[in-house]
Amino acid sequence: IYLAVPCLSVAVSPSITLKNSTSQRVGFIPSKAMTPGKYYYITTKKLSEPILYDDFESETTGSLPSKWYIQYEGRGNGYQVVVSDVFRNGAKSFKTEGAGSWSATLTSKDTDAASFNHSMLVLQAYERVSRIGSGHNGVLAFTNHGLGHWGYYLARVDFQNNGIQAFNHGSSAGASYDFGVTPLTDTWYHIRLVCDKDAGTYQVFLNGTLVSGKNTADASDIRDAFPMLNYPITNITIGAGNGDSTVAHYDDVIAYAIE
Questions:
Q1: What's the average model confidence in pLDDT over 25-50?
Q2: How far, in Å, are 31, 56, 137, 196 from residue 92 at the CA level?
Q3: Which of 209, 205, 246 has the alpha carbon at shortest distance from 226?
Q4: DSSP for 72-116?
Q5: pTM for the full model?
Q6: What are the CB-based long-range contacts (under 8 Å, 24+) for 1-5?
């Protein structure tokens, strides 16, 4: 028997229930009851309670959401705020705004290495880029900002001006793998990273579909499992890039383990 939950789906016994993204208990529902426009993932593995879940609905409009820390302020602290004029679900989202040569980098506050001490990890969010400049414009990543000068991005999906890409960045940038999808402005995308720490790789689902990427420096290198850096994960990182006053919105940011 399968239990379907928006963005979280799992095979379970009849005695187990899970919570959906509105924190309501759900029962066993047929596929026809699934909400149009939501993305559903089916797994035969047990899912952990969320390591991080933020839909921004309980936050005050115009304020920095309570679960996030400004690592780098981009256009300014006052531009990294919850808004109610743009959202994917509910009535609010988190707007981040970068500046030319200075990104807006937001990291999860209440997580540490122990939070992510699992072999299989999932990170997912809805992401929408409103202004696209040169270079990188929006990011969703597992990170460790205690390493290096700018932090290490162990598994990352980036909205570049010329395509959506997967790559890592430690003491130097790793290979970039382009999905062949140029991001459209003012369009919500659902991004999901599935990380296998034992294998040292992660896969990416874009709007519910597993994607492959081509190495931007080696066209013969095409894969659907991308290299992940082997360092402790301490944070989730989102934000807007340093490509000319970029704006990126986020909704329903979720991280959890597959056990």
A1: 52
A2: 27, 6, 21, 32
A3: 205
A4: EETT-GGGSEEESSS-SSTT-EEEEE-BTTB-EEEEESS--GGGG
A5: 0.84
A6: 1/28, 2/28, 2/42, 3/28, 3/29, 4/29, 4/31, 4/33, 4/34, 4/40, 4/42, 5/40
Phi/psi at 220 (nearest 5 deg)?
-80, -10
Tokens of 221: 């290198």
- Tokens 């989730």 locate to 236
Q: Which residues of 97-117 are buried (b: 16+ CB within 10 A; e: fewer)?
A: bbbeeebbbbbbeebeeebbe
Q: In the chain, what percentage of residues exceed pLDDT 70?
A: 80
Closest CA to 142 of 231, 67, 223, 53: 231
Q: How far apart are CA 110 and CA 125, in angstroms?
A: 18
Q: Which residue type occupies 2? A: Y
The CA angle 204-231-72, to the nearest 5 degrees, is 75
Q: Residue 228: what pLDDT?
A: 96
pLDDT tens digit string along 146-158?
998 889 999 999 9
